[in-house]
């Protein structure tokens, strides 16, 4: 053995190490491949040895060879061997090699699981670190699943070095194993506040990556990130957070409003350009999300544009580039503010840096107007001439066409100019975009009728000079324009001045060198031209000319008949035969021109590119059904008598369908006629021309402004677009002069001439009338076209799997041994809505809503009465929640197998966020997320107040006013007695409301109660105790996570003018129920309430109780002790109370599906009981909503005045109700597996309704 | 996310490649060639961003690079990274290399590709920025190097002696290709 080791180390002396290998490769420049192959042979030998050092050395060399492009996957197993070495040096080499060449389909990866797990738990932090780093590069779904838990533990490692790596790698784990996201998320969230900045930064990094793909799931983290943003000084973290906010704002416009101010401050204060840039970017995103409805943000836009201008003017090319990039984002929503910087952007077009020129080009697209289009395009044409690289030139070409053709040629005033631009572009050498120019030519010639004469003349010139375009093989791309030229000349041949010449040009032998599809068009259009020529020649009474033309065709066409292209050949031989026949007739002196031109009569109208797709599938069309009976498998039927039955089946179904057919036959026939009338390809008896003009009413009657006669209609050679620029200038000037003289005439012209284009452009542009009236024919669409199709997402996107609702509490099935956390709070009644000053309804797009908002705004201005405002707020709130909840059922249905969580929790989170987003002053925060969350939430006030003092000058003053008002309003709402009044008030205004709040919200969550009539506000908070100092209201909720826990939320309100502090909450435990106290405290110690109360302020705290039996209601006695502190004195006070644990409070709203519900009832395990309520005078859905809200039920099914409901206790008892109402009597039949519990619940329900 | 980090010299020879997404070896080489082609034809005084090549990523990806003397450092990143931030990161990385190798030059990268990888691993992990503080990076690298030394290193003394002998009659090795102008090339970016 010893000998072996010695031998190994002696061998090693002569092994090459990495340096030797590199040196060797450098010395064998001529025969590198050969040298490397010998090296690989050596490496293979080395890998066969037992010595791990030799192996590691070999693997190290392989890593180098991998970089040079050699496949080293054959050594995968050896890499794993080196990875599992106990020495750090070798381990590191192994992991490096693995991270470079392992991937998901490397099969040895599955051997590594245990090794990696061992390394992860190694006492040496660097072993762990190396394993984490390696794993981050080759983690597979299996590894992710097996190691998720180990990595989770590492997130709380003592060493920050490990923590930050563990946090970062979690992202990769989530990607590969999405199920881990929910269990790991709480801890990840914790890491956002890690003391180590590196770990914090890593956590921010991971959450930002997650949120970028599925932003809506992370909206609830906004307050936390906001806090980080205002407190962090690490620019990396700031940039990430600011970028994240950029992704979140489109989902929540209110967030944007909150952000604008701190971001503006950062923009003003930061010296780091990177941070400045990201701030500007996010402000832009915010402004986009706020859309144009916010006039008072013009200051922010100005600031952004101004800062970007500074960037663009900077000598640093990087800043210039980024400035332009961000500018293009502003352009989309605020084009005017960018347009003022046109000079700067045009300047960038001259930049030596291609990237910058490209960015500037992008910007130009949005900056053109009627006024400057010619000027800008002229400039671009100059650049086209100067440009060296073909890519940049092609880019320029497409941009010119894009700019000119944008929004249906909106900015083109002179189409002659545009045609000449297009013709000029054909002179470009070696462009790939010939087809683009061609399609533009076709489009303009077809759709702009007035231009056809000019276009045809230009195209004829092009055809005449075709040799210029085809002369050079390099220009093959551009010959596509000949396709357009030939078609235009043929189709609109009546405009040709000299059709004979063009016909000859089209039949030149040289044409045969063109691509097949162009030749085909040549042949076809030669025939059209031929028809036109015949027509003109026959009129001349000189029949020889006509015969000569036919002869020309007969002479030239055989060339095409021999073409290798099938299409060309077919058309040519067809037309040749036709012409021969015509010639025969001509020789007999028969007039044929009429008939020949009839071949090509009729107009071709443009069809929208999507028209085909939008044709609705005719009703009853089933392409899968057999038209005839399916052929039976075997012909010999008598052998298989069973086939008869099989065949009969379709017969059964068919008559049924025919029945339907007959009913709708007439309707369908009508529809078909309609469709045919609109189908350009359908040959109809009389072409209906009205349809084409439908979109441009009365075009015919518009007096066409005569073209200035100085415009040469026939340009010798190739036209120069520059002439038009000059002419246009002159024309405009003349027009302006004329306008002054003839005010009256101008007005008339404008009214009739501008037609539908009135809405476009700023006022100054309105003055520019088009040179000649343009009738842009709109593209045809089929009748009742389908609505536009959504763009589908990439189904392969790995991030789709991570679209997971993180706010839902963990279900038992996915629970991991993590710190158990409280169940989320239930939605609370009016108190929570705060002042949602001007929340915009989320996720709503209907115009109706927008109108409503406008109304609101108007209202707000008109009346400053507090009451009215309140109403608005309620309304908004209702909408908001409605919108927010809309997706709930979907989420639930996804998780049918899982123990569904109470839907309330999501809404609680939403409302937390809602609350945060509203700018309410914090002390009156009744919605504070209490004890545990208190720590989180506490610093928020700082953030909010930090912004408040230096409020923006352009911020309307009334927001502040509203703030104070709403805080009052909130306090009021807590008071029950006032609530009653509110209710009455609201009832008066029911017609305004969709939902008022609380109860309505609950009803919607359950997804079954329709909005019939708005519901009165409801609250589960009931009075606990009250004296002259303090008032306590409380609510009890079961804890889903733990069957033996309930959470009591108590709102403390300071009613006196003194400061209340050192509040201690204590309860006398019973055998059954105990207050959970922190470890180490005695059974009789009180719990300190984690806040103090300034005068007039209320706050909420939560206390957890453990209960054993839940079948009986019970009461616990308790005391609150506190110190009342005045300026000069302080006194101890106490308040006794009785906590009433109803059986209802042990129930948890649990959705149930009707099939599961039915099964449950059938199972027979449930005991029955029933109760009758007399004299209940309220709508049925109110009744249901009350049961849902106060007793934590959910509606399973509702049929007329009968509904089944379900709930579950924290210990898993099923409670099923069947509620029936007739007249004023409500009967409730109930079933439960615990009769005592059921009895008590029913009693409580009875009590609820006796109270109202 | 960072999709790839490529270091190659003025002739397109790769000095370090680190893909955070799997590509087969021949594809990797193709990407290097394409990237080199894109980057090398750009002047030194143009901006450091380019729209990504056709091979790597789509419109969401950008190439962000810096050119130091004989080497190009190219990062391929998506839109979640800040452009200027990545430029700073490249600077941090290069300065760290400079510290660890004491006046880094291309030769250091050629002969110590593994070490460069280890340094990079402390800066970027799995495509995400791990650490941007240079002192922290160098500390961690140093500790790990010391650990390696205490284990005797990859090649123990005798092997090193042999390689010294092997070194003796080698044709001249180009030296002093220092990346001297490391700090001059930094555009007017404020400190990060």
UniProtKB/TrEMBL annotation, chain A:
Residues 621-695, 710-1015 are annotated as: Disordered. The keyword Repeat applies. Residues 660-807 form the AP-3 complex subunit delta domain. Residues 741-757, 844-853, 983-995 have a biased composition (Basic residues). Keywords: Acetylation, Coiled coil, Cytoplasm, Golgi apparatus, Membrane, Phosphoprotein, Protein transport, Repeat, Transport. SUPFAM superfamilies: ARM repeat. Coiled coil: none annotated. This is AP-3 complex subunit delta-1.
TrEMBL record, chain B:
One of its GO terms (biological process) is intracellular protein transport. SUPFAM superfamilies: SNARE-like. Keywords: Cytoplasmic vesicle, Golgi apparatus, Membrane, Protein transport, Transport. InterPro entries: AP_complex_ssu, AP_mu_sigma_su, APS3, Clathrin_sm-chain_CS, Longin-like_dom_sf. Its main location: membrane. It is found in: Cytoplasmic vesicle membrane; Golgi apparatus. Residues 1-147 form the AP complex mu/sigma subunit domain. It is a peripheral membrane protein. One of its GO terms (cellular component) is Golgi apparatus. Pfam families: Clat_adaptor_s. PANTHER family: ADAPTOR COMPLEXES SMALL SUBUNIT FAMILY. Part of the AP-3 complex, an adaptor-related complex which is not clathrin-associated. The complex is associated with the Golgi region as well as more peripheral structures. It facilitates the budding of vesicles from the Golgi membrane and may be directly involved in trafficking to lysosomes. In concert with the BLOC-1 complex, AP-3 is required to target cargos into vesicles assembled at cell bodies for delivery into neurites and nerve terminals. Belongs to the adaptor complexes small subunit family. This is Adaptor related protein complex 3 subunit sigma 2. It comes from Sparus aurata (Gilthead sea bream). The lineage of its organism: Eukaryota, Metazoa, Chordata, Craniata, Vertebrata. The gene is ap3s2.
């Amino acid at each position: 053995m010893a000998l072996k080791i010695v031998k190994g180390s002696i061998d090693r002396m002569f092994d090459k190490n990495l340096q030797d290998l590199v040196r060797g490769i450098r010395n064998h420049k001529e025969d590198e491949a050969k040298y490397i192959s010998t090296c690989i042979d050596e490496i293979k030998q080395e890998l066969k040895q037992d010595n791990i050092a030799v192996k590691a050395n070999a693997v190290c060399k392989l890593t180098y060879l991998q970089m040079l492009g050699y496949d080293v996957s054959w050594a995968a197993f050896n890499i794993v061997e080196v990875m599992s070495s106990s020495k750090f040096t070798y381990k590191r080499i192994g992991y490096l090699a693995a991270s470079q060449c392992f991937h998901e389909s490397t099969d040895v990866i599955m051997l590594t699981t245990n090794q990696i797990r061992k390394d992860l738990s190694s006492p040496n932090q660097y072993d762990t670190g190396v394993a984490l780093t390696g794993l981050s590069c080759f983690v597979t779904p299996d590894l992710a699943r097996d190691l998720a838990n180990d990595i989770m533990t590492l997130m709380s490692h003592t060493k920050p070095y490990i923590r930050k790596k563990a946090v970062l790698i979690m992202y990769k784990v989530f990607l590969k194993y999405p199920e881990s996201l929910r269990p790991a998320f709480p801890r990840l969230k914790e890491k956002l506040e890690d003391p180590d900045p590196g770990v914090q930064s890593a956590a921010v990094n991971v959450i930002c990556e997650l949120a970028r793909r599925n932003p809506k799931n992370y909206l609830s983290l906004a307050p936390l990130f906001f806090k980080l943003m205002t407190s962090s000084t690490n620019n990396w973290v700031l940039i990430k957070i600011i970028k994240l906010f950029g992704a979140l704002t489109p989902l929540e416009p209110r967030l944007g409003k909150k952000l604008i101010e701190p971001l503006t401050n950062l923009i003003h204060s930061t010296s780091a350009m990177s941070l400045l840039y990201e701030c500007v970017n996010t402000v832009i995103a915010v402004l986009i999300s706020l859309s144009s409805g916010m006039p008072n943000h013009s200051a922010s836009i100005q600031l952004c544009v101004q800062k970007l201008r500074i960037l663009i003017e900077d000598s640093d090319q990087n800043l210039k580039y980024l400035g332009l990039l961000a500018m293009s984002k502003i352009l989309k929503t605020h084009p005017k503010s960018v347009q003022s910087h046109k000079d700067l952007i045009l300047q960038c077009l001259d930049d030596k840096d291609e990237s910058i020129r490209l960015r500037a080009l992008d910007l130009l697209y949005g900056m053109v107007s009627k006024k400057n289009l010619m000027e800008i395009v002229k400039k671009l044409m100059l650049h086209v001439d100067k440009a060296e690289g073909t890519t940049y030139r092609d880019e320029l070409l497409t941009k010119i066409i894009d700019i000119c053709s944008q929004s249906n040629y909106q900015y083109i005033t002179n189409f002659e100019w545009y045609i000449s631009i297009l013709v000029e572009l054909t002179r470009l050498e070696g462009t790939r975009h010939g087809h683009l120019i061609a399609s533009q030519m076709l489009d303009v010639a077809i759709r702009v009728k007035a231009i056809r004469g000019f276009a045809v003349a230009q195209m004829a010139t092009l055809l005449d000079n075709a040799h210029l375009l085809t002369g050079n093989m390099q220009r093959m791309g551009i010959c596509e324009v000949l396709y357009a030229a030939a078609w235009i000349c043929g189709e609109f041949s009546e405009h040709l001045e000299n059709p004979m010449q063009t016909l000859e040009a089209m039949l030149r032998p040289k044409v045969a060198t063109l691509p097949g599809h162009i030749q085909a068009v040549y042949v076809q259009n030669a025939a059209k031209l031929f028809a036109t020529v015949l027509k003109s020649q026959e009129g001349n009474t000189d029949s020889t000319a006509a015969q000569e033309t036919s002869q020309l065709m007969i002479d030239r066409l055989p060339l095409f008949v021999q073409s290798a292209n099938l299409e060309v050949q077919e058309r040519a031989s067809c037309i040749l035969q036709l012409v021969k026949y015509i010639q025969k007739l001509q020789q007999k002196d028969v007039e044929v021109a009429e008939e020949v031109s009839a071949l090509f009569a009729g107009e071709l109208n443009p069809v929208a590119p999507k028209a085909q797709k939008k044709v609705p599938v005719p009703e009853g069309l089933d392409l899968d059904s057999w038209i005839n009976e399916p052929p039976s498998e075997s012909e010999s039927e008598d052998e298989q008598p069973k086939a008869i039955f099989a065949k009969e089946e379709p017969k059964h179904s068919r008559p049924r369908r025919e029945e339907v057919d007959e009913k709708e036959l007439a309707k369908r026939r009508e529809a078909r006629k309609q469709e045919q009338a609109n189908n350009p390809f359908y040959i109809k008896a009389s072409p209906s021309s009205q349809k084409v003009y439908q979109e441009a009413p009365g075009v015919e009657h518009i007096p066409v402004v005569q073209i200035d006669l100085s415009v040469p209609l026939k340009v010798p050679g190739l036209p120069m677009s520059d002439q038009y620029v000059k002419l246009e200038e002159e024309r405009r000037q003349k027009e302006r002069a004329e306008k002054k003289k003839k005010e009256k005439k101008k007005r008339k012209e404008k009214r009739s001439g501008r037609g539908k284009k009135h809405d476009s452009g700023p006022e100054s542009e309105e003055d520019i009338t088009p040179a000649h009236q343009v009738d842009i024919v709109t593209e045809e669409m089929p009748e009742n076209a389908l609505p536009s199709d959504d763009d589908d997402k990439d189904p392969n996107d790995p991030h789709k799997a991570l679209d997971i609702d993180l706010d839902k509490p963990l279900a038992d099935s996915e629970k991991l041994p993590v710190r158990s956390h409280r169940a989320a709070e239930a939605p609370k009644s009016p108190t929570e809505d705060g002042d949602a000053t001007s929340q915009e309804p989320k996720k709503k797009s209907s115009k109706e809503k927008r109108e409503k908002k406008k109304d609101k705004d108007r209202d707000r201005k008109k009346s400053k009465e507090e009451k009215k405002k309140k109403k608005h707020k309620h309304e908004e709130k209702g909408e908001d929640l409605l919108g927010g909840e809309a997706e709930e059922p979907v989420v639930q249905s996804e998780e049918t197998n899982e123990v569904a969580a109470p839907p309330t929790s999501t809404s609680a989170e939403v409302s937390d966020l809602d609350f945060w987003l509203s700018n309410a002053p914090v002390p009156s925060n009744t919605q504070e997320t209490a004890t545990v969350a208190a720590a989180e939430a506490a610093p928020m006030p700082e953030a909010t107040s930090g912004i408040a003092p230096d409020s923006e000058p352009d911020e309307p003053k009334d927001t502040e006013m509203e703030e104070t008002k709403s805080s009052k309003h909130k306090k009021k709402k807590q008071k029950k007695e006032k609530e009653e009044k509110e209710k009455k008030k609201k009832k008066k205004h029911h017609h305004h409301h969709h939902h008022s709040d609380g109860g309505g919200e609950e009803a919607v969550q359950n997804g079954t109660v329709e909005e019939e009539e708005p519901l009165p506000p409801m609250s589960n908070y009931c009075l606990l105790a009250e004296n002259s100092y303090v008032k306590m209201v409380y609510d009890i909720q079961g804890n889903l996570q733990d069957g033996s826990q309930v959470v009591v939320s108590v709102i403390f309100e300071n009613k006196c003018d003194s400061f209340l502090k050192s509040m201690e909450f204590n309860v006398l435990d019973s055998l059954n129920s105990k207050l959970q106290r922190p470890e180490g405290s005695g059974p009789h110690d009180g719990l300190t309430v984690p806040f103090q109360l300034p005068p007039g302020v209320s706050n909420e705290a939560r206390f957890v109780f453990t209960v054993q039996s839940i079948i009986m209601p019970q009461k616990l006695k308790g005391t609150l002790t506190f110190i009342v502190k005045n300026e000069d004195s302080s006194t101890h006070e106490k308040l006794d109370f009785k906590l009433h644990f109803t059986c209802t409070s042990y129930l948890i709203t649990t959705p149930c599906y009707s099939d599961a519900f039915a099964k449950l009832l059938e199972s027979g395990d449930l005991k029955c009981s029933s109760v009758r309520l007399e004299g209940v005078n309220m709508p049925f859905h109110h009744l249901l909503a009350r049961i849902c809200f106060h007793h934590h039920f959910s509606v399973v099914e509702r049929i007329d005045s009968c509904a089944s409901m379900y709930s579950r206790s924290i210990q898993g008892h099923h409670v099923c109700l069947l509620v029936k109402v007739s007249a004023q009597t409500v009967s409730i039949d109930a079933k439960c597996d615990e009769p005592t519990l059921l009895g008590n619940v029913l009693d409580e329900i009875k009590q609820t309704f006796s109270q109202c | 996310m960072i999709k790839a980090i490529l270091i190659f010299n003025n002739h397109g020879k790769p000095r370090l490649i680190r893909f955070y997404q799997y590509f087969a070896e021949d594809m990797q080489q193709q990407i290097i060639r394409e990237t080199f082609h894109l980057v090398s034809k750009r002047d030194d005084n143009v901006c450091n961003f380019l729209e990504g090549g056709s091979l790597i990523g789509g419109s969401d990806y950008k190439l962000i690079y810096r050119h130091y003397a004989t080497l190009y450092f190219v990062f391929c990143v998506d839109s979640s990274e800040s452009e200027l931030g990545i430029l700073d990161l490249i600077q941090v990385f290069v300065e760290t290399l400079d510290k660890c190798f004491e006046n880094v030059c291309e030769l250091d990268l050629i002969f110590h590709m593994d070490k460069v990888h280890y340094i990079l691993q402390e800066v970027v992990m799995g495509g995400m920025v791990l650490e941007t503080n240079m002192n922290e990076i160098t500390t961690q690298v140093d500790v790990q190097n010391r650990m390696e030394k205490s284990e005797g290193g990859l090649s123990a003394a005798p092997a090193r002696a042999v390689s010294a002998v092997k070194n003796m009659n080698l044709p001249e090795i180009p030296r002093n290709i220092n990346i001297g102008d490391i700090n001059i090339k930094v555009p007017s970016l404020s400190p990060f």
